[in-house]
Design a protein that fits this description.
The complex is a heterodimer of chains A (244) and B (503). Chain A is globular, with a radius of gyration of 18 Å. In chain A, 37% of the residues lie in helices and 25% in strands. In chain A, α3 crosses α4, α4 crosses α5 and α5 packs parallel to α6. Chain A is of the alpha/beta class and 244 residues long. Chain B is elongated. With 503 residues, chain B is of the alpha/beta class. Chain B has a five-stranded mixed β-sheet with strand order 12-11-13-10-14, sandwiched between helices. A three-stranded parallel β-sheet of chain B has the order 7-1-8. In chain B, 55% of the residues lie in helices and 14% in strands. The chains are: A alpha/beta (244), B alpha/beta (503). Chains A and B meet through α2, β6 and α3 of A and α16 and α17 of B.
Chain lengths: 244, 503
Amino acid sequence: MSNAIIRTEFLCKSFGKLDVLKDISTEFYQGEVVAILGPSGSGKSTFLRCMNLLEQPTRGRIYFHEQEITKPKTNIAKVRQHLVMVFQHFNLFPHMTVLENVTYAPIKVKGINKQKAQKQGLELLTKVGLEPKADVYPSKLSGGQKQRVAIARALAMEPEMILFDEPTSALDPEMVKDVLEVMKALALSGMTMAIVTHEMGFAKVVANRIMFLDQGSLAEDSTPSEFFHNPKCDRAKQFLEKML
Amino acid sequence: MKKKKLRLLTILFVAIVVINTIAGHSDPLKAASSLNKDTLTMITSPDYPPYEFYDTKGGDVYDGLRLRQIVGFDIDIAKTLAQKLGFKLQIMESDFNGLIPALQANRADFVMAGMTPTPERQKNIDFSIIYYEAKDTIVALKGSNLKQPEDLSGKKVGVQLGTIQEQNAQKIAQKVAGIELKQLNKVPEVVQEIKSGRIDAAIVEDTVAKGFAQANPDLEFNTILSSEASGSAIAFPKGSSLVEPFNKVLQEMKDLGTLKKLGTKWFSQNITTKTVSSTPTKSRLNLDFTRILPDIPFILRGIPLTLLFTLLSVSLGLIWGTILSLLKIINIKPLTWLANAYTSVFRGTPLLLQLALVYYATPQLTGYKISALEAGVLTFTLNSGAYMSETIRGGIQAVDKGQSEAAMSMGVPYWLMMWDIIFPQGLKNILPALVNETIGLLKDSALVSTIGVVEILRSAQIVGANKYIYFEPLLFAGLIYYVLVMGLTFSASALERRLRQSE
């Protein structure tokens, strides 16, 4: 009996004839900061999106605290509250203010009362450095600010784990640093995180585990120092040569 | 002993009831009690002065939304009849060619509208004895020299659809060669066609022709000498128990001279229209808005009804359209199929036809006497729901997929997500289309005038009928519609600007 937050068993995903994920079995434990690396088209994002069932796996099983969530009739909304995702394109709600974005789900999904949610929301916005923007609409924010709001929105759900899907890929280079700072602080505070990213430097410093996906298979699963200094498979070596 | 008495009384009572039932309604004064209700509903077509028309000046009762002061010869007779038989009288209205369907749909107990009993009509409805006799006339432009049926050879002749004059004109057309008949819904329209030169003459009943000739100095009328008098009678649903008591009272009124007195009161009345004193100009379209000045408040009072009608139809249509669009979006095949079939039927048939079906068929199908306003709102809701469902579906599907993913990834349940996240954004997408739909509905609301809702257009037509004129009230109504649509457009763009602030 494992005490993993998430465990996948022979996870497969195909889009038509294209096999995107091939038999991925792994576990995510409390406090882990896992960077999921790999060339484009290796299935990183699909894997992440399978974990909270935004994509339905074709085969295989996923367990959340040893409860199988790939079973039909699972109340997936309930599970997702604990596995919140941060998207490449932020996906803030444009018709709500920044604070409303952050407090919406806690109020409507978790049933926290409005005053408490707002107080909490403002604290989180302070944490990501955007408290002064609480009452503006997302359209007035820069990309980096939007992503920090999205992180605050995710944190407001007090999740067990946050899934980051290429959080800095849509940002101008000068915005990337701010977002990575926030994520680093989050990692240091002990949040469990799975991060699909191309930021090698960040992965090297912040992650405590590296998953390397190649053509839909889990090619390497090791510590950052091992992966970056002594990669085992050839694909990983080639990948690192190109990236660094 | 007591028991015996009781039994005897019971038998006696039953016997009386049975006899009463078998004997029918021999005693007219008992009609009220045996019909089991105290109000009779009469339906008429109040665009036919002096028989029945709206009194647009003063004295009109404004009971909430409907203006009810229909007056005229027929109305006076109906009131007398109802009073003598011990009923209260309620008056409804519709176009003339909607009167018989209304009887058949049990929407009314009787019709008084200067209607002549003909064998064709008698197949479907029952008639009382004749209470007034009128002669047909030929109405034409002054100096056209169309006086008798023989003169109409090779001419275009107008008549009101569904009237006895239409039938008489057909008989004339069989005898006189080359007559082309044109049927229109209302006498004022027929008269207007003469004035615009699209028809040469019209067959109109004498009392009505007289009114038009007085109000339009360029018209003249000549009584058709050979025509048999066409009598007006009261129409009832087939087998109505009211025929007999009505006949009895009508005969009484004839004998006492009451009918004659009423005839004199209405038919010898001078038409209260200002005669145009200036010499007739060459142009036949001599507009004179002073003629409708006193009636402007009457037309204006159609506005609240038009607005209420539009508001109800748009909001209910939006709700219904939303439901339909959801049925199309969620992945349940039979429901999607149903919603698509529904949309195709309601978009594929004329609104006017749907309106007539809902209004006239609902009472026969369900037994519920749907009011004209209800029928209008229902039809427009069903119809605009079909159109809006497509608009809304497009608006919802245009919302970025990332929005629903973001909501789902925080565990927001489907319906809550639709309501809080997707709809508000979809609605913003479709706001311009919704404004278009509202403007369309506002103007299409004029269609309910055909089933007798006194909205703006109907009010204008009533004024036109009373004054024997055509263009002035219609132009005025057009102006009102235009102002309303402009107001709507401005407030919609203000709303759009406000919604855009979040972008």
